[in-house]
Amino acid sequence: MARLSKPASSAVSAPPGRGLIDQLARELDGPPLQRAALSHIDFFAPVVSVADDAEYGLFGDGGRARPTLLGVAQIGLSRRPAEARLHAVLAAGARVALLVLGSGILIALLLSARISRPILALARGADELREGQLGLQLRVRRRDELGLLADSFNRMSARLHHTMQSLAHLNRTLESEVQRRTEALRRSRDFAALLNAPLRLRHLLDTALSALVHDTAALGGAVYLCHDGEQASLEVTAGACTTNPTGLPDGLTERLHNTPGCIEFLGPATISAEDEGSGTLPIRLRHCYSALRFHERTEGIVLLLRREALDPERLEFVRHASAQLAIAVANARAFRAAEQLARELEERNVELLQQRDQLQQVNRLKTEFLANMTHELRTPLNAVLGYAELLADGAYGEVNDEQHQSLQGIIDSAGHLLALIEDVLTLSRAGAGRMNVHLESVDVCRLVQEVLLATAPLAKDRPYRPHAALPPELPPILTDAAKLRQILVNLLGNAIKFTPSGGVTVAVEAQAEGQVRLSVQDTGIGIRAEDLELIFDEFRQVDGSSTREHAGSGLGLAISRQLAGLIGGQLVVSSAPGYGSTFSLLLPARAPDLDAPS
Q1: Can you list the pairs that 372-381 forms with residues at least 24 positions away whose Cβ atoms lie under 8 Å?
Q2: Tens of pLDDT along 376-403?
Q3: Phi and psi angles of residue 425, each rounded to the nearest 5 degrees, phi first
Q4: How many CA within 13 A on the CB side of residue 557?
Q5: Up-side HSE of residue 383: CA atoms within 13 Å toward CB?
Q6: What is the mean pLDDT of residues 411-416?
Q7: Pairing relation of β-strands 40-51 and 581-587?
Q8: Which of 7, 329, 430, 502 could form a disulfide with 523 if both were Cys (CB 3.0 to 4.6 A apart)?
Q9: List of residues 6+ apart from 4 with CB closer than 8 A
Q10: What is the CB-side half-sphere exposure of residue 577 using CA atoms within 13 A?
Q11: Which CA distances in Å does 462 have to 287, 352, 416, 495, 502?
Q12: Angle between helix 201-215 and 145-194 (nearest 10)
């Protein structure tokens, strides 16, 4: 293998080995090969020749030549110049970096010193403020955020110093203020306690005025009370007013009523004082007037006499005391009026009790009289009725038609009179409590039908016939059948009498718990609302004139309500003029057992 080299070829490394030559032979058209060393890089490239090959041209691509490796070209590239340049650049960069770092440190130190000084000043100021040096002011003259913080600190310190001074002042005056207010509260408490005494007006005014004069250091005082429609009159006095009472100035009551609070002015000479060498001198005192107002009403006026005007504290005490005294005066007056009313009511109650006893005695005598009279009247009336019937039947001889008609009139009138006597007797017995209740099982529907049949003659002149509205099945109830029948007869008779046209209906309805409601409904003339309760009074009719259209004694409804109460029922009515009436009887499943006289 031949070897050619230029001067300084000693820098070139060893020649290529066999492996590298074989690799170049295989890759004649490839890029040069590299081999790195510590101080340089070797590049290897093939050296070839081109020879004509007829076979290759026959079977290949024609005129293409086939290359032949003749040798290897080796070129060495040294790294030292590049490394020297790199070292120079690194050295220059290091110097620049050191310069920048030093400048940064210097700038940082300067900025740190500028920032830390005001912060340290604020910290020292806070410590001194905490130790009690109030009002401390920092000297930080800057316009940035630290300057604003220092200004806020100075304002806070000044405000805290002012606040502490105010607290110290308040603390110095607190004890005296507490004592002053405690004394005011004590006066108000003691005065209020005085007003809780027994509600005797004179004693109350004496006690309250003495307390006012003492607590306000007044020389005297007086209390005037106002009366409806009259001038205020002097009630009690104390101190200087005792020997020389003063009257109220004209128009003062109206001024106090319209002006809340107190009115003070210098009054005329009220008392005399001793003067050295001059005897006695009249002294003009200040008059302080305060109204006793309660619920916009002036109950009275309080007068206090003093040498000087009232200070604000005592003036406020007088206002509160006057308000409390006004309440106490109003209560005392109300108590006195209540006592007077109680005495009057007690006297009236005694009179009413006496009248009640008298009325009970009169009622008892009336009941006994009615019972006796009805019994005495019924006996001869039955005889008259019996003889009239015998005459009408021809027991004493034939009678003509005119005589028979007259006898029938006697019989009808006697029967009507006998029924009236029976009603009076029933009413007197019920009122005297001498009626018995006989209980039996009653079929209400059947009883209603019997009553309708019995009262049918009453409607013979009417264009209608009373009828019943009965349920298909209704259990029997335990009650007094005779009294229930009489109630229904009375209600039906009334309904027919006051119903000239339309209709009358008896309705039966089952209620809860076995109760039964019987209603007699009519379409008659109706009853006014103010007369609904009057119709149940004895001998009371809505039309009580002598020319009334409908006759009657006015006992039917009274008797019906009495009987309803005896059998445990309740009789009520609803009506309107022109629309008829409905009388409803609510009966229990079992009436009270009152077989003994009730």
Answers
A1: 374/421, 374/422, 374/424, 374/425, 374/428, 375/425, 377/421, 378/418, 378/421, 378/422, 378/425, 381/414, 381/417, 381/418, 381/421
A2: 776 777 777 787 788 878 777 788 888 8
A3: -65, -45
A4: 23
A5: 4
A6: 73
A7: unpaired
A8: 502
A9: none
A10: 5
A11: 92, 50, 20, 12, 9
A12: 140
The tally of CA atoms less than 13 A away on the side-chain side of residue 238 is: 24
User: In angstroms, what CA-CA distances link 379 with 411, 414, 534?
Assistant: 15, 12, 33
Copy the structure tokens of residue 278: 């001059």
Neighbours of 437 (CB within 10 A): 20
Long-range contacts of 244-251 (CB under 8 A, 24+ apart): 244/270, 244/271, 246/222, 246/270, 246/287, 246/303, 248/224, 248/289, 248/301, 248/303
Residues 160 and 134: beta-carbon distance below 8 Å:
yes
Residue by residue, what is the 3-state secondary structure of 389-425?
Answer: HHHHCCCCCCCCHHHHHHHHHHHHHHHHHHHHHHHHH
Q: How far is Cα 195 from Cα 205, in angstroms, rounded to an integer?
A: 9
Q: What is the pLDDT of residue 504?
A: 93
Helix (H) or strand (E) holding 27: none
- Report, as an integer, the average pLDDT of 125-138: 73
- Distance of CA 476 to CAs 122, 320, 589, Å? 107, 77, 8
CB atoms within 10 A of CB 236: 21
State the burial class of residue 583 (Cβ atoms within 10 Å of its Cβ: 0-12, 13-18, 19+).
Answer: buried
Residue 217's region, left for phi above 0, alpha for psi from -120 to 50, else beta, is left
How does pLDDT run across 57-76, given as a tens digit for each residue? Answer: 444 555 555 677 778 777 77
Residue 494 · residue 504 · CB < 8 Å: no
The counts of H helices and E strands in the chain are 12, 15
Please, how many CA atoms are within 13 Å of residue 346, restricted to the half-sphere of its CB? 6
Structure tokens at 205: 């005014």
In terms of Cα–Cα distance, which of 287, 273, 313 is closest to 218? 287
Q: Which residue has the higher pLDDT, 264 or 2?
A: 264
Contact (CB, 8 A) for 318 and 288: yes
Q: Which helix (H) or strand (E) holds 315?
A: helix 312-392
Side-chain half-sphere of 477: how many Cα atoms within 13 Å? 29
The closest alpha carbon to 384, from 405, 404, 412, belongs to 412
- Domains in the chain (CATH in brackets) are 16-78 (no CATH), 435-587 (3.30.565.10)
Position 63, amino acid:
G
pTM for the model stands at 0.39
In angstroms, the CA 96 to CA 51 distance is: 62
Rounded-to-integer distance, Cα 429 and Cα 23, Å: 158
Residue 14 DSSP class: P
Cα first-last separation, the chain = 167
- State how far the Cα of 318 lies from the Cα of 84, in Å rounded to an integer: 112
Taking alpha carbons only, the member of 132, 124, 128, 123 closest to residue 161 is 132
